[in-house]
Amino acid sequence: MSGLFSTFNIAKRGMEVQQKAIDVTSHNIANANTAGYSRQRANIETTRPQSLGGMEAGQLGTGAQVSTVDRIRDTFLDYQVRNETSISGQYSTRDNFLSQIEDVFTEPSDTGISSLMGKFFDSWQQLSKQPQSSNARTVVVQQTLALTDALNHTYTQLKDLKNNAQSLIKNTVTDMNSTLNQIGELNKEIISVKNAGDTPNDLMDKRDLLIDQLSSKFNLSIDKKAFEGINLKPADVNGMKAPELVKADGDTQVARFSYISSMEKDPTDDSGTTYKITYYKLGNMDSENNKQTITLTNVSPDQAKEIEETRVIWSNSDGVATKADGYPLKDGSTVDVQELKLFSPTAGEVKGNITIQKDIDNYIDQVNKLAKSIAFTVNAVHSGMSSTTTNGFPDKDYMPLFVNKSVANYSVNGQIINLDDTLKNESEITAGNITVNKEILNDVMKLKTKTRDSNFAYADQNTVDGEGDGARALAIAQLKNNLLDIQDVGTTVNSRADLFDMSKGKAVLKDNGLTIENNNNGTTLEAYFKDSIDKLGVQAQEATRMVTNQQQLLDSLNQTKDSVSGVSLDEEMANLVQFQHAYSANAKVISTVDELLDVVVNGLKK
User: Fold this and answer.
1) What's the average model confidence in pLDDT over 139-167?
2) What are the structural domain ranges in the chain?
3) 187-223: buried (b, 16+ CB within 10 Å) or exposed (e) per residue?
4) b/e map of 283-322 (b: 16 or more CB within 10 Å)?
5) Interhelix angle 569-602/4-30, nearest 10 degrees
6) What is the C-alpha to C-alpha distance for residues 114 and 429, in angstroms, rounded to an integer?
7) Cα–Cα distance for residue pair 351/348, rounded to 1 Å
8) How far is 272 from 318, CA to CA, in rounded Å?
């Protein structure tokens, strides 16, 4: 029945409702600067009305109640932000490393490889004018050494950058696994709280914040389940049949990631298609107990390169590598390369690290091609021999200018003691091991500069040409403008003989080695290197542009997201005043009812 006590209860409920609304507003204000917090709203609804019955037909309201406390969140905006964050993570990583690669090459500058190549050929030009001058010869040798030192330094720095990228991948793997474990635990708590009938808004905010952070590592996919639970997996499952990283059903058998620390060819396999990989479970290298090995068979060169650059593999929750069906690969097992599942997302920091390693490998390959081309051509003209050995006299190149420093050995007086091995391994010259023959460093008069030096093992044996003959020095200087098949070095060109193979349409060495006929399909040394630097510049600009564009897009999306989910102190203060007045009004109703009850109880006595 309606009456004063019913009115009293309505007012009491009203005060409780406003008190809860004030609590929610206070919580919003307290977390205005909390990362990942979504503002909350108390949903107020009427309580079940009272039927009057009898002569008083109809229903009488019984007040209000807080039905739920909801967080304000737009799931589509979340999806957009996470998707763009993955792309931003990829290009931020690329931009960082590409700028470091630019610093390695330092082009254009007076100390860069391009400038040193120019000085190298210019020094030979000057030597051709005064070949008898020991000073001019010293300048040539020192400029040559400066060039090889620059190539060595560039190679080493690029290798260090690649190692840094791989270390970053290892750290990323451990971070991803740790974040996934936290998300999994929060997922369980959220389901438990929701199942008990409560709304775990703050726990869901924490989970979403971790998911936002994880999205910078790789692009992910989320399936919502009952009781606010989620299933989380990468957007690119790479053929995995059980790719879930977080599950809502409480199943602890979830996928994780491990890190390949090394990869080596099996020396017992002559085919060169068997590799032994070493990986650490969950990327944790703090203990050797986490170390695992697997032997892979039927590995092609492209697959070997992909594994070496990717480094991240799918594993189970314990970190043991698995096949596509989730079956673990036991430590020490031998499997076909197809059984090992690499994790290669299409976006995120992991993708950025994988692609930047490919770029670094390409630039290492290009400086190696440059070093080989310089060594092959200059050694060929310097000796007059299109290969390291010949059927004529001399029977070999007794005084190569460029040598492989990892092979060449010298006696106490500075003479090569393993010339045959040194010549044989000229084909293995790279930017990392190219250097100047110490015999020539110690005695610059051993440089070959004359027309018929090609007919003699050593320069001092040539008594035919005059002291002023600098024809061979001039020929080396003119290599600067020769068109060479540099792009094929390392593939179809692996030695001097390959570079000057007439049957394959390569360049031709003639006139005692003084002339190299241009290869119309080739390019100059300077142009080849400049093309590489130009490509690097374009890649760096693209990465910087993408970072800028993605940042602007993310700023816009986050601004929209904040307008929906963020806390506005002005709005909360206005709400606080509104709830305060409502609370006061309900209190006034109670005060009025109290006065009326006083009239009923005490006033009727008078």
Assistant:
1) 96
2) 4-72+566-605, 127-164+365-530, 256-344
3) beebbebbeeeebbbbbbbbbbbbbebbbbbbbbbbe
4) bbeeeeebebebebbebeeebbebbbbbbbbbbbbebbbb
5) 160
6) 19
7) 5
8) 32
Question: Average model confidence (pLDDT) for the chain?
Answer: 92
Name residue 184's beta-bridge partners: none
Q: What is the pLDDT of residues 363-388, one digit of tens each?
A: 999 999 999 999 999 999 999 988 88
d(C-alpha 568, C-alpha 135), whole Å = 77
The three-state secondary structure class of 396 is strand
Which residue type occupies 60? L
Structure tokens that stand for 313 in this block: 């593999």
User: Do residues 66 and 44 touch, judged by C-beta distance below 8 A?
Assistant: yes
So what CATH class is 256-344?
A: mainly beta
Question: What are the tens digits of pLDDT across the range 170-179?
Answer: 999 999 999 9
Rg (CA), the chain: 38
Sole residue written with tokens 């030695």: 495
- Residue in this structure with the two tokens 């003989």, named with its chain if needed: 497
Instruction: Give the chain's end-to-end CA distance (angstroms, integer).
Output: 27
Q: 574-599, pLDDT tens digit by residue? A: 999 999 999 999 999 999 988 888 88
pTM, two decimals, is 0.88
Nearest residue to 80 (alpha-carbon basis) of 606, 595, 561? 561
Give the number of C-alpha atoms closer than 13 A to the C-alpha of residue 47, restricted to the C-beta side.
18
Q: Is 324 exposed, middle or buried (0-12, 13-18, 19+ CB in 10 A)?
A: middle
Is residue 493 within 8 A of residue 529, CB to CB? The reply is no
Q: Where are the beta strands (DSSP E) in 443-590?
A: 508-510, 515-517
Write the burial class of residue 119 (CB in 10 Å: 0-12 exposed, 13-18 middle, 19+ buried): middle
Give 17: exposed, middle or buried? Use CB within 10 Å, 0-12, 13-18, 19+: buried
Is residue 502 over pLDDT 70? Answer: no
7-18 average pLDDT score? 92
Count the neighbouring beta carbons within 10 Å of the beta carbon of residue 528. 18
- Cα separation, 372 vs 330, in Å, equals 43
The residue whose two tokens read 């080493």 is 156
390, 408 Cβ separation under 8 angstroms: no
Cβ 579 vs Cβ 399: under 8 Å: no
- The Cα 391–Cα 399 span in angstroms is 17
Query: In whole angstroms, what is the distance from residue 102 CA to residue 125 CA?
Result: 30
